[in-house]
Amino acid sequence: MESIGELLLTKDGFEKLENELMYLKTIKRVEIAEQIKEALSYGDIVDNAEYEDAKNNQAFVEGRIITIEKILYNARPMEVNDNNGHYVELGSTVKLKCLDTNKVSAYSIVSTVESDPFENRISNESPVGKAVLGSAVGDQVKVKAPAGIFYYKIEDIQ
């Protein structure tokens, strides 16, 4: 297996990838095999849209399996430090107050692999993630983002 460098994942993120891999290998592969079998029963595969769709799904799933296996091979779940919310680390949920707008937002700091901005899960490599790592409640941080420079105050850490 090709090494992509060690990845540190939250325990939750590691488990989600393991579960997704198991689902893809045990359930999704079987479903796609059935789709291919059914599509082949329609006859010639030359102008068979169902067969083409099933083969495309199969290629996507097999690619995802390879990707997850590579991630898990190189990943290790992070050790849970009992810092009692004294400072921001990977796995922390941090409440930030934008000093320009007074808007308060909460973000979970996760690895790049686990990030999902729609779920307020931001990467430790993102501008905000980099800026808040190691900070404590009450600290003010400067974030250099593509949209400009922003200042935040750490309101809470969990």
What's a concise summary of this model?
With 158 residues, this protein is of the alpha/beta class. The protein has helices at 11-40, 49-74, 127-132; strands spanning 7-9, 75-77, 93-98, 104-110, 121-123, 140-145, 148-157.
Task: Provide an overview of this structure.
The protein contains 3 helices and 7 strands. The chain is α/β, with parallel strands linked by helices. The protein has 2 domains: 7-77, Helix Hairpins, CATH 1.10.287.180; 93-157, Transcription elongation factor, GreA/GreB, C-terminal domain (Chitinase A, domain 3, Roll). The longest helix is centred in the first third of the chain and has 30 residues, at 11-40. The radius of gyration is 21 Å and the shape is elongated. The two termini are 36 Å apart.
Tell me the number of structural domains. 2
* Number of contiguous helices: 3
The beta-strand count equals: 7
For the report, how would you describe the main beta sheet? 5 strands, mixed
| Helical percentage | 25-40%
Reported by name, the CATH topology of the largest domain is Helix Hairpins
Question: Radius of gyration in whole Å, from Cα?
Answer: 21 Å
Structural class: alpha/beta
- Identify the overall geometry: elongated
CATH superfamily of the largest domain: Transcription elongation factor, GreA/GreB, N-terminal domain
Strand order of the largest sheet: 5-4-3-7-6
Along the chain, the helix and strand elements come as EHHEEEEHEE
- What is the overall pLDDT average? 89
The multimeric state of the shown protein is single chain
Q: Which secondary structure elements does this structure contain, and how are they paired or packed?
A:
Elements lengths: L6 E3 L1 H30 L8 H26 E3 L15 E6 L5 E7 L10 E3 L3 H6 L7 E6 L2 E10 L1
Parallel strand pairs: 1-2, 4-5
Antiparallel strand pairs: 3-4, 3-7, 6-7
Helix pairs in contact: 1-2
